[in-house]
Amino acid sequence: MQQPEPFAGEEADESGPSIESKNPEERITARRLPRYLVSLVSNKPDQDFHFSLFFLQHMTKLQSDGLELVTNIQVAVDARDSDWRTGLEEACRLRRDKLENEAKSSQEKFEEITRKWTDAKMKQTPLDLRDALNSQQQLCEQIVADKNKLISELQQELKASDDRYVKDLKKQAKDIDLIIERMEEQISSLKKSYLEDLEQIEVLNCLLQNMLQGLSLLEEHEDLLQKLRVQKAEEYNTDKIKMDTEVQNLRKKLQEVKFNCHLNEEKLDYKYEVLKKREEENTILKSQLKRKIIRMQDILNNLKSKCANQEKQSKAEEQSLRNDYARIKQQYKDMQKKERHFAALDAERFEKIWLISEGEVKAMAHRALETDRIIHEQQLGLAWVSPPLPFMEHSGPIEHKTLKTASQAAADTLQEETGDSVEESEGLEDTGSGVNRRTVKRILELLCDELVSGFLVESKLLKLVSHLEKNEQSLIKLDCIFTVSTIRPVVLNWGASASQKSSVLGLDMRDDSGDTAYWECIANVIPESKLRLWSALDTALNKYHMLHPN
């Protein structure tokens, strides 16, 4: 006999109160539920059944527990934030004290450096000046070291603060996620509880309706079962006839499938023979390709050996060219040394000739002016006014200030000379500003060493200049530093006696653009108008003598 269909509310009953629940009140409710339904069917409700009270207490407890879970996180965050603010204020106070102490210490050291500069000006010997300079340099380095140490400590504190800030952000994010998670869990729990309450109400309604309709449904099911027995018997006979017919058709299809299988076997045998022949052809082709690969490897090995020989030859040629370059460079330096020597002699001879010629010309100018004065006072009876004579205040060749770029000045300073002339001029060399040339050279070398290690010079350039001499390396590095730093050309005064004393390091071509104007100024000490006056006076005197020969 076929089982009757389940009632509509039986599936919903599974989600209601269970006797196996861990909650004792829920187990009590599950035991009382059948008695309550029976009392509803018999119209005798149980007065002790308190479903509404149980559900209300359950919901209130869920809400209070969820609120406590959320507020616990907030209280913990507030306590941690208070501790963090207290620690931050203490760290700020300590850092402020440290900065004030460092400022006072730096000010004291700076005042000491200033006092020592005054003492250094009173010293006369180079040794004392060098000691004073070294002492000042050590004090400056100590101040810079203290500043760097303080900066390092502040950077470490800043890094620690950043790390702590990131950790706090992560912790806050975790707390927020935890709060959201707990709120979502609480919402889900409340929603689930409300749904369970609603389901309980629906279950009760469904159970009540099902129990009222139970008797009528049982009778209907018995009639339906009888009808189904008759119907299934008829369907069984019909299906049996249909299945016999399908079996006959399947036997015919089986014969056709066997015939097709035999035909496919013959086709597969033919294709197997074809594939076997192709495999033999592929084997022959593989052997040919292997022989070709071996031949190509031999060619590759020959090319590699040729390349290695060519590389060795190139290295030998490069070394030879480097030796030639060093030899030619040394010859060039010797030629420069000779050129400077003869240029110094020519400059000295030129200055002597200039002074002699200038003295003669100035004497002639004085005689011409004296003649002009006599003519004005004795012949013309006029007051004579001396013209402006700026050339009388100048003596010696005209010197011009040469314009040099920072790179050229650095090249002149870094240039090293050997010989007796350098040894004699060691105590007199300067850069035109009172600073010793060796000091400038040392400063430029320190500038190279300090800034090259940073980001101003690329590592590729350092590799390329590594085989050059030290001065050439320093010059290339300084040129890169000046180019990156956009340093403009500077004017160095190589004039008069300073340029002559420092001629050992290099003599530039003399600028004679103002010589012509200078000599013309001396030649025109008597202007053209006075010359015409002299000519007219001479003509008049000649006529006068012709008329009065006695």
Topology overview:
Blueprint: H1 10-13, H2 24-41, H3 51-122, H4 126-380, E1 403-404, H5 406-414, H6 420-424, H7 437-452, H8 459-464, H9 470-485, E2 490-491, H10 496-501, H11 515-523, H12 528-547
Antiparallel strand pairs: 1-2
Overall radius of gyration: 58 Å
Order of helices and strands: HHHHEHHHHHEHHH
End-to-end CA span: 188 Å
User: Which regions contain 5 or more consecutive residues with pLDDT less than 50?
Assistant: 1-15, 43-49, 416-433, 487-507
Order of the strands making up the biggest sheet:
1-2
Task: Give the class from helix and strand content and strand pairing.
Answer: mainly alpha
Would you kindly provide a written description of the structure presented here, covering whatever features stand out?
There is one protein chain. This protein has helices at 10-13, 24-41, 51-122, 126-380, 406-414, 420-424, 437-452, 459-464, 470-485, 496-501, 515-523, 528-547; strands at residues 403-404, 490-491. Mean pLDDT is 74; it is low at 1-15, 43-49, 416-433 and 487-507. Among the domains are: 10-240; 404-513, no CATH class. The protein is elongated and about 190 Å long. The termini are far apart. It contains twelve helices and two strands; from the N terminus they run H-H-H-H-E-H-H-H-H-H-E-H-H-H. The protein has a two-stranded antiparallel sheet with strand order 1-2. Helices cover 79% and strands 1% of the residues. The relative contact order is 0.05. With 550 residues, it is an all-alpha fold.
